[in-house]
């Protein structure tokens, strides 16, 4: 029987009081399974999506283990390394580490692209116990001799399948090869494509395998609708939806960076507080946009797939697919931005005739038929082609997550 309270893991009082302050009363299923194994120092392969509480599942035991043995020396060496595919996810993980360590004397920092080297080097020279970073910048800093991995005891690879999609696999492999052989390795991934399985076989030792398929898949908790519409009428439909869903915060997904900017500008002209996040925005711009959205100062966040994946913003009532995603699995990630933490949510896809094939890919993957209306709300029967003709990589019917298009190495996605 897995533990039902955090006390049962034997965490120290500072950690327990911090969990209580955050209202974490009960561990989530992945936490119940991963924390005891991680505390024992076991390697872990976790098949889990965001929203399952996986960040705490790997940060809490890591913090607890490091806190047991805090070096007396002033100059700290990196003992835990957490690698994440995107800057936003890295920032989110680092925030979680900070939230759990206000009363634990461990130091942490984050190194990601798009931020000045100077500041990051300064933090590292000061000495940290926990380092969170993205693969590209990590490799840069290792090459420059600023990051020393010789004392790493625990390494965590989060969203491994997304790292593969972005083209970070060679960077990850290089990093793993630089780490001490005696170490704990945890790898989390929403899907398990064969490249990730191979990485696991080559770099983990006798790992505990943990799989958390949400009781009711997020997609099932979300009310999904399709509006059949011409491409040119989509902007007007967004304005109508903003009225219909008054008071709700909304994420609008576009296929391209240019499309995201266009929608954001059109909304801003109509005095709607909107921000866009995509790969052409600087780290600071993305952070500012996300924080403003989290605080509720921005009502509409317009985003491309890679920029928004894994981003956890509670209280998003509506997700709109302005463009249908080219890869069906992105649909699951997109709509999963609503209905966080067991809440309900609505996902509306604006589908033009040209996009019917992509809608078909989504329906086949989820094995559902999404009800469709015209712009007046009248039900319509759509003629869905048998296939969009787009290659759908890493399709996993049951897990409902992961996948995506491969991108060249070093690309920051869109
Ligand atoms: P994650 O899957 O790590 O992105 O976590 C999803 C959300 O669940 C985050 O907002 C966490 O703060 C929250 N969360 C994680 N674990 C718990 C818990 N045991 N109790 C309550 N909330 C949690």
Please specify the SSE layout and strand pairing.
Layout: H1 13-21, H2 29-39, E1 44-47, H3 54-67, E2 80-83, H4 87-100, E3 108-111, H5 117-126, E4 130-133, H6 135-143, E5 154-157, H7 160-166, H8 169-178, E6 184-189, H9 194-203, E7 208-211, H10 218-221, E8 222-228, H11 234-244, E9 249-253, H12 257-269, E10 274-277, H13 283-295, E11 300-303, H14 305-308, E12 316-321, H15 328-335, E13 345-351, H16 356-366, E14 372-373
Parallel strand pairs: 1-6, 1-7, 2-4, 2-5, 3-4, 5-6, 8-13, 8-14, 9-11, 9-12, 10-11, 12-13
Helix pairs in contact: 2-3, 3-4, 6-8
Bound molecules: adenosine monophosphate.
Adenosine monophosphate binds at residues 24, 26-28, 31, 50-56, 312, 341.
Key terms:
single chain; 414 residues; alpha/beta; 7-stranded parallel beta sheet; 16 helices; disordered C terminus; binds adenosine monophosphate
Beta-strand residue fraction: 15-25%
One letter per element, helices H and strands E, the order comes to: HHEHEHEHEHEHHEHEHEHEHEHEHEHEHE
Structural class: alpha/beta
List the ligand species: adenosine monophosphate
Q: What number is the mean pLDDT?
A: 87
Which percent range fits the helix content?
25-40%
Radius of gyration: 22 Å
Identify the strand order in the major beta sheet: 3-4-2-5-6-1-7
How many DSSP E strands? 14
Shape: globular
Distance between the termini: 43 Å
Number of helices: 16
Query: What oligomeric state do the depicted chains represent?
Result: single chain
How would a crystallographer describe the biggest sheet?
7 strands, parallel
**Uncertain regions: pLDDT < 50 for 5+ in a row?**
393-413
């Amino acid at each position: 029987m897995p533990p039902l309270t955090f006390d049962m893991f034997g965490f120290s009082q500072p950690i327990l009081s911090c969990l209580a302050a955050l209202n974490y009363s009960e561990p989530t299923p992945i936490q119940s399974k991963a924390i005891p194994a991680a505390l024992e120092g076991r390697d872990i392969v976790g098949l889990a999506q965001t929203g399952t509480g996986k960040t705490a599942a790997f940060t809490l035991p890591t913090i607890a283990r490091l806190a047991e043995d805090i070096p007396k020396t002033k100059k700290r060496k990196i003992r835990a390394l957490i690698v994440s595919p995107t800057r936003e996810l890295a920032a989110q993980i680092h925030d979680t580490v900070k939230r759990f360590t206000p009363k634990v004397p461990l130091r942490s920092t984050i190194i990601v692209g798009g931020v000045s080297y100077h500041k990051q080097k300064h933090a590292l020279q000061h000495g940290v116990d926990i380092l969170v970073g993205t693969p590209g910048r990590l490799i840069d800093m290792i090459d420059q001799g600023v990051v020393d991995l010789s004392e790493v005891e625990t390494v965590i690879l989060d969203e491994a399948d997304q790292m593969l999609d972005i083209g970070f696999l060679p960077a990850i492999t290089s990093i793993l090869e630089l780490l001490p052989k005696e170490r704990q390795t945890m790898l989390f991934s929403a899907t398990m494509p064969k490249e990730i399985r191979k990485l696991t076989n080559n770099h983990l030792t006798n790992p505990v395998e943990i799989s958390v398929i949400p009781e009711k898949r997020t997609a099932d908790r979300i009310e999904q609708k399709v509006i059949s519409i011409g491409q040119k009428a989509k902007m007007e439909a967004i304005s109508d939806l903003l009225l219909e869903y008054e008071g709700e915060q909304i994420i609008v997904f576009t296929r391209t960076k240019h499309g995201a900017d266009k929608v954001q500008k059109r909304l801003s002209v109509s005095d709607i507080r909107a921000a866009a996040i995509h790969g052409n925005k600087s780290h600071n711009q993305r952070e500012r946009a996300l924080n403003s959205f989290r605080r509720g100062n921005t009502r509409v966040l317009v985003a491309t797939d890679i920029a928004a994946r894994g981003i956890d913003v509670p209280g998003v009532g509506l997700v709109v697919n302005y463009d249908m995603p080219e890869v069906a699995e992105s649909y699951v990630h997109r709509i999963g931005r609503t209905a966080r933490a067991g809440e309900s949510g609505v996902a509306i896809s604006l589908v033009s005739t040209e996009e019917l094939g992509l809608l078909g890919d989504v329906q086949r993957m989820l094995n559902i038929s999404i009800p469709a209306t015209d712009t007046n709300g009248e039900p319509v029967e759509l003629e869905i082609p048998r296939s969009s003709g787009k290659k759908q990589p890493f399709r996993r019917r049951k897990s409902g997550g992961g996948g995506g298009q491969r991108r060249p190495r070093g690309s920051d996605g869109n």
